[in-house]
Hints:
Elements: H1 29-32, E1 45-50, H2 57-60, E2 66-71, H3 89-100, E3 118-123, E4 125-126, E5 129-130, H4 132-144, H5 146-149, E6 151-156, H6 170-180, E7 184-188, E8 210-216, E9 227-228, E10 234-235, E11 241-242, E12 245-248, E13 252-255, H7 261-273, H8 280-287, H9 302-315, E14 318-320, E15 323-326, H10 329-346, H11 352-362, H12 371-374, H13 381-390, E16 404-406, E17 409-414, E18 422-426, E19 439-440, E20 446-451, E21 456-464, E22 468-470, E23 478-480, E24 486-492
Parallel strand pairs: 1-3, 1-6, 2-3, 6-7, 7-8, 8-12
Antiparallel strand pairs: 4-5, 8-9, 10-11, 13-15, 14-15, 16-17, 17-20, 18-21, 19-20, 21-22, 21-24, 23-24
Helix pairs in contact: 3-10, 4-6, 7-9, 10-13, 11-13
Amino acid sequence: xPEETRSSEQSNDGHAHAHAPNRFAVxxxxxxxxxxxxxxxxxxxxxxxxxxxxxxxxxxxxxxRIVAFHDIAxxxxxxxxxxxxxxxxxxxxxxxxAAAGNGRLSEGIYRGLASESNLVLVKASAQGRVLEENxxxxxxxxxxxxxxxxxxxxxxxxxxxxxxxxxxxxVDRAAEQAVREGIVVIAAAGNNGLAERHxxxxxxxxxxxxxxxxxDDGNSFERDDDxxxxxxxxxxxxxxxxxxxxxxxxxxxxxxxxxTPAYRLAEQLSHLVSAPDYQLLRLVQSLxxxxxxxxxxxxxxxxxxxxxxxxxxxxxKIVAAHYQHADGTSFAAPIVSSVVAQMLxxxxxxxxxxxxxxxxxxxxxxxxxxxxxxxxxxxxxxxAVAEAQREQHSHxxxxxxxxxxxxxxxIFIFRDDVARDVALAGDFNKWSTDAVRCVxxxxxxxxASIPNPGAGRYRYKFVVxxxxxTDDVGNGLKELDEYGGFNSILHIA
Length: 493
């Protein structure tokens, strides 16, 4: 089966209509995140593991950035614009374009933050169904081909069956291996936050994966009415709090799948809303020559027709001739993946653990939202890229992970480049701020050690400058404290 995607012969010549957003437009992602326009994911390859894909013009024009396509089930032997469109192509097309599209069909407005990145597309569905086995096989294929295609980021907007310990899940084991192999893995938290069972499932429950929950800004730059999306949250079967971060999961511009009735309707409506009144009825007849125009449209006055058109645009979430707004953590995850592509463009030396640390430590915590649902808060694209560019610390994975035991002692590491003083306080020293002082090493990291306190569960925090109490960003084992924050958890078997 050919793995390489053929170049497209398509052009925009067949799109002789307005491509600019209509009055129901949503905020473009780069504007919404105040992202640094100097970074576009150039030179970074992002893999997407999803139900299926269509080679959208935003990814293949003017040059094809899809460097590989692979179908786990072996159903599709080619990935070309001429191939028939299937319903399961919709999800992957939207996630990949939301992250890495160049806005070709929107006059450049609805482009992703990684608009110049390369893409590897991995189809995980079989006859439209996505099984855990195929998710695991898809991750394994990405690992096997990471060097061939230079894959640095893997976006997974799919989920398995249930939250189980990660060591017993084939999907989680594959995800953890991908991170060990140098791939930053980002997963959607899921959309069942209001259900009784609301923890994330594989691979979003995997300790090393960056799990992304949802946020709703109301399609506004104002922060008065923003709120969290109903995404999965809470302690996993391993006790890891998920998600680590949230991103926009509502009002996200995404492409309408070409060749579908929804695509044709959006084109027709876009023709009509830009036409003058005297052409409206004649244009309705030409666009729906078989008399299948929306009921009663031909019998109405132009002002009534326009009200009907607005209602159709709004009901179908159409924001431009070839785009609609989508919702779900499936679209929050690609936003974070595109930020990571920018970070790796700014600093290609960053390993996954450092990328994760920077993302969570630069996020904006939402004052009005429960911490257990937002993790470290809303992704801050500009700050994350700036911090990635400045990053010069040790890149040993252990430096950014949970405490570890060495030679009978527990080693803690904390990073704060501007702190004057750092102490370690917890159950093991009766929460004293004077008993264990951290020492700043030559690499600029604060380190502390304590004698192994023996089997048990211990809460702890770092105390910065004698006043600011903070949890351990590198340790996913946490619990809510009594003061609106987290305690980090040290578990010794």
